[in-house]
Amino acid sequence: MRTPNRLLLVALLLAFPLFAHAAEDQAPTAEPDVTIRKDGDTFVQEYKANGFVYAVKVTPKHGKPYYLVRADGTSGQFIRSDPPDMLIPQWVLFSW
Which CATH number fits domain 2-80: 2.20.130.30, 3.30.830.10, 1.10.10.10, 3.40.50.300? Predict the structure, then answer.
């Protein structure tokens, strides 16, 4: 009776590294895929994880670089992640 139990235990111990290796293959990568392209005088870097673009870094020739991130996480609309330096006046001129 002890021999089958020992054989089962040895088989499980030998098979454990195979299960761990299979789990590592299916795990998502921690490193994002970065695609760099040039549009005119601007460099655009797209950050992807699992084939999903989650952020874009735009580096213009003149000016500071800025990031665009998804507005709600699912749609294709991007918004700036930082507020722009230029302040736009928002005075009330007329009201009734």
Answer: 2.20.130.30
pLDDT category of residue 96 using cuts at 50, 70 and 90: confident
Top mean pLDDT of 9-18, 21-30, 45-54 is at: 45-54
34: Cβ contacts below 8 Å, ≥ 6 apart: 45, 46, 47, 48
Q: Flag whether the pTM goes above 0.85.
A: no
Q: Which amino acid is at 28?
A: P
53 close to 43: Cβ distance less than 8 angstroms: no
